[in-house]
Amino acid sequence: MVNNTGGEMKRFQQYINGCFEDAAFSFESLDPSTEVAWAIMPEARETDIDRAVEAASSALHRSDWAGLTASQRGQLLYKLADLVAENASYLAELETRDTGKIIRETSAQIAYVAEYYRYYAGLADKIQGAQLPIDKPDMDVWLRREPLGVIAAIVPWNSQLFLSAVKIGPALAAGCTMVVKASEFGPAPLLELARLCDQAGFPPGVINFVTGFGPECGSVLTSHAKVDHISFTGGPITAAAVLRNSADNLASSSLELGGKSPFIVFDDADIDSAANAQVAGIFAAAGQSCVAGSRLLVQSGIKKKFLAVLRAKAQAIKIGSPMDMDTEYGPLCTQAQRIKIQSLVDQSVDAGAELICGGVPAEGPGFYYPPTIIDCSKVPKAPAVVHEAFGPVLSVLEFDTEEQALELANDTDYGLASGVFTQNLTRAHRMINGIKAGVVWVNTYRAVSPIAPFGGSGLSGHGREGGLEAALHYTKTKTVWLRTSDEPIPDPFVMR
Ligand code: NAD
After folding, report:
1. Does domain 10-257+456-479 have CATH number 3.40.190.10?
2. Which tens digits make up the pLDDT trace of 242-275?
3. Whose CA is nearest to atom 14 of ligand 1?
4. CATH (residue range 262-442)
5. Is the pTM of this model over 0.85?
6. Which label site among 63, 120, 174, 195 has the fewest CB atoms less than 10 Å from its CB?
7. Catalytic: which of 176, 217, 290, 376?
8. What does the CA dihedral 296, 302, 308, 312 come to, rounded to 10 degrees?
């Protein structure tokens, strides 16, 4: 099939029960840097989802998966990690093409993706039960850790390979089976990951990949009777819909949602280093990052100087084609996202905020929006301060004292990430203790590791990804009581 410029479009397929297949419906995917349709994606609806969940459900107890030892599951994950590393440049190109995220970032991120799979491959045979020291001499009592069941994993458009690895790695290490739903925006890399899972040798049905839209695909998946757990990453409004859906199947859930993370700079901070970290925190990935440090809180004494340095850095960012290795900043993923961001900026400026740079969408093809900084000191409740833009918009507020900094930092319904820049060790500790967030970065920002748990509270969701904790989340315990005495059971009318 050709697109409106006469170019041949690539066709992707869904992966259900070990087979690649077209869905009954399909949709076109746009290259966000050109706005030209470049691929046809399979659009899963009820019958596809039902087959995918049935496949995962029957694979869960089938001997070719349930009969594997934990080390054998780990070997499959090691193989997947190797395949991801071997195919890194192709996967990075697909992600860049389909989401507009710059190739520099997607290439670097793929290395982390392989590391996450390796980490969970190594953890597979370290997920252990426990012997319980029960106070009854004639009983052996222990906890078995069993797979949680069929997992519905749902991811948003940004960093789909990365955001799915933090679900797939621990879930498969624990022996679960999965239906992974890629976002309807930029699903290409995940549909290609299905090929690598197939090559790695996971038995049919253990992991299934689909994509589609919220109501027809996501809702059907999250309310399916055979789904045991929903691992969701996305926005809080969708998360609420997911929880309503799971009222039908009583599935448990972990929710990794948005943020409005404070980035706090004290007057003793290394200004250049803090400004670089702030650029990384809000303008990397054109701000489409859940951990975006989108609220700069700066101490009044250095505000003017810090904003001047930051503005110069923001304006020097190299904007261009996401496929070019020199490009530092690409387009947003969708036009809808650009409209939403513009509205947030306009409303804030109308309310009295002062635009320091950016604030006007770029002309020409592609969903480009420039790095934008808005001083909201006179309107601390401006929309740009309160609402997640999920884009390159930095709101600025100032403070005088540590107490004020903490008060402003915690004046949000979100609680995902935070950054503190200071040379004062005891102050850093006081801030770490007081900040309401799942992650605190001190004198750094946007650092990750498979070993470090990640997650938030409030509107940022619940549950943690990464680390051993995440693998345990994908298990359920079974308590076993074994009586070791051969004597007849005494008084049957008394609880033992
Ligand atoms: P979104 O909530 O609109 O969509 C996320 C996923 O949910 C998509 O796959 C979508 O198709 C699906 N979906 C939509 N409606 C659904 C429904 N009714 N039932 C089930 N699934 C449904 O999010 P988005 O706009 O694609 O992504 C941006 C959001 O994701 C931001 O809030 C961002 O902060 C958040 N995010 C969080 C993290 C994290 O780890 N905390 C990481 C990345 C992004």
Report:
1. no
2. 999 999 899 999 999 999 999 999 999 999 999 9
3. 214
4. 3.40.309.10
5. yes
6. 63
7. 290
8. -70
